[in-house]
Amino acid sequence: MKRISIGPKHEMIVQPAFIIGAYSEDKSPDFAPITWVSKTCEEGDENLIVISMYGEKKTRLNVQRTGQFSINLVSTSMLALMDYFGQTSGHDGVKDGMTYTYKKAVCVDAPTLDESRWVCECEVLSSVVTGQSETFFCRVKNVQVDERIDIDARGIDLTQFDPVIYSGNYHSIGEYLGGIGDHYHVGEK
Ligand SMILES: Cc1cc2nc3c(=O)[nH]c(=O)nc-3n(C[C@H](O)[C@H](O)[C@H](O)COP(=O)(O)O)c2cc1C
């Protein structure tokens, strides 16, 4: 195998796609796919979600104003809905061009999508502006998961969520490959 350099254009940080939900000023829900999501930690074992938004999109303004939002994991059954949310803006009114249902999160004041099998409820701690982007550092207040999925058994097995993976294009995932320590035992050569 010989690698060739292709410049900076095709960098990728690949992970499941997420739809962010936050309330607009009139309490109507707004949802948009945001895939620039990561995490860090301050100290100890409390993780902070890191999420970045570009431009003056409605979701960014809603998150700035309310300080609260939901992260909704996108399964392949939700692909059309995500594609719709990503090509429309809450600035143009409520996104009601497709059918979906939602309800308020349990621990924060933000809408969640009923169809999502994994939802993370977040509260903004701080943010940093870089040019036209804003990156929010957020505390996790609650996680909701489809009751049919047993996360305690072996942690998060993504195959059970059938997520959409976004690399600039949409993909689904293959088989479950085990966990950390299943493929190499420390001390082995
Ligand atoms: C798959 C996908 C991923 C996206 N990820 C991001 C992202 O990480 N950050 C961002 O600022 N916009 C992202 N967008 C763009 C927003 O979803 C899009 O601008 C949307 O129309 C914003 O809607 P709103 O104005 O209601 O917030 C993404 C769009 C798609 C389709």
Tell me what you see in this structure.
With 189 residues, the protein is mainly beta. It has a single domain, classed as Roll (Pnp Oxidase, Chain A). 11% of the residues lie in helices and 36% in strands. It has three helices and twelve strands, in the order βββββαβαββββαββ. The chain has helices at 58-66, 79-86, 151-154; strands at residues 15-16, 18-23, 29-33, 37-41, 47-54, 68-73, 102-104, 111-113, 118-130, 133-145, 165-166, 170-171. The strands form three sheets. The chain has a seven-stranded antiparallel beta sheet with strand order 3-2-6-9-10-5-4. The protein is globular and about 60 Å long. It starts with 14 loop residues before the first strand and ends in an 18-residue tail after the last strand.
